Amino acid sequence: MVKDDVGRLTPLGLMVLALLSEGDMHPYEMIRLMRMRRDERLVTITNGTVYHTVSRLEKAGLVSEVGVDREGNRPERTTYTVTDAGARAVVEWVRRELPRVDRPAEFRVALAEAHNLDRGEVIALLLARRTALADAHRALVEGHRFADAKGVPAQYLLEVDRDEALLAADLTWLDGLLVRLDASDFPWGPDVEPSERYIAQRKAARQ
């Protein structure tokens, strides 16, 4: 798969690929499962956008059909699986987005799917992100201080003040996360057992 394919991959497309890495599904099951997990916090989920996304992923060779089912009077449901190219796309997309500070929506999805990478690589990428955040925060503080010295009224600097506080909070949170990730008792990787609630959600979404 070429880099352009990863570049065109949307956050919803990434989440669909990540879902299929858990097992083969039809789009209706994907929609139900994402809603059960409250993934609307991260991406817009509608029947139309999910079906359209799956179609685009299939055309790109990132997913493929594995069967068509019909139960009772329900319409036919096509089940999809993630291809090798699709699995690589997940890793490449997360690797690209995790250290970036200019795409907050993409970062949230990358963080949610960071478990697809090795722990050491995630730590390295987040350290790179921390450096970029610290630089941005430092520049903002200096700009704010300069504006104050020039007598710019505070009412014109409210957004700057908020951004400065948010960056400081993000740095504090990230420092704590890096400590947790570096601890040997923090579970990580494909061998981590899913919770009972997680398993129950998968079963409910199939019905």
TrEMBL record:
InterPro entries: Tscrpt_reg_PadR_N, WH-like_DNA-bd_sf, WH_DNA-bd_sf. Residues 16-89 form the Transcription regulator PadR N-terminal domain. It comes from the Bacteria. Transmembrane segments: none annotated. PANTHER family: TRANSCRIPTIONAL REGULATOR YQJI (PTHR43252:SF7). This is PadR family transcriptional regulator. The lineage of its organism: Bacteria, Bacillati, Actinomycetota, Actinomycetes, Micrococcales.
